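new request in #modeling-help
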Amino acid sequence: MDAMHDYNPFELRPIATVQSPLTDLMSAPKQAHEGAPQAWLNFDPTVLDGLDALRVGDRVIVLTWLHRADRDVLVVHPRGDVANPLQGVFSTRSPARPNPIGLHEVQILEIDGARVRVDALEALDGTPVVDVKPVLRRV
Amino acid sequence: MDAMHDYNPFELRPIATVQSPLTDLMSAPKQAHEGAPQAWLNFDPTVLDGLDALRVGDRVIVLTWLHRADRDVLVVHPRGDVANPLQGVFSTRSPARPNPIGLHEVQILEIDGARVRVDALEALDGTPVVDVKPVLRRV
């Protein structure tokens, strides 16, 4: 796929940062329903207009950039357990992958200016946020 | 992939490219269930090991980089209809947003080496793919 080398590099611009009691990679829950704490998303003032229609109670998908992940990994032991056979990363939710984007479905609990509090987020303190999208339900 | 260490830490690295009959931005469906066609994802040979556990029938989330989107937009008329009041992009699925990452839940129909055919994808031909993740269902 030589054409791929013609792409310009694509740089993400963080729009917010996670403020969370989670600071230890090894003890962090792997999924939100495994005991993840509430967290604040502290948005950059330059993107405030993008938040204007978000409401308390909304369910949204937060996209993070898992900046501590190893981007050279293509196979992992699922859930970091060596008892699980090695498996390609694209069939796992491992943070280790070529583009370590995390997807987190959360509910908004509070909106305070450029700060948004969410109910359960399995991302470490300081993790950059790169997007927020509404959860779509087909009608 | 040793060269990856030279990358800007916030730089996305395309892993595949969408091959689709969709070539016209204006006529493309906005959501997969609005008539999106089947598409092939043509993976870069360097990431093949990451695909090894994907199977026909799997439901996965494809993350694209909507490279034609306007990244300076923070408010939009939802669905591009000026009859809809302007709204912050983070409560819409508009491609226009600071980091135009597309989320697409699809089913795998065929795997042919580095090519994966999926059932319905509302992304234009040539769109870069940046990640593939399994759909998680809580047990």
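bot summary: Chain A has one domain: 14-134.
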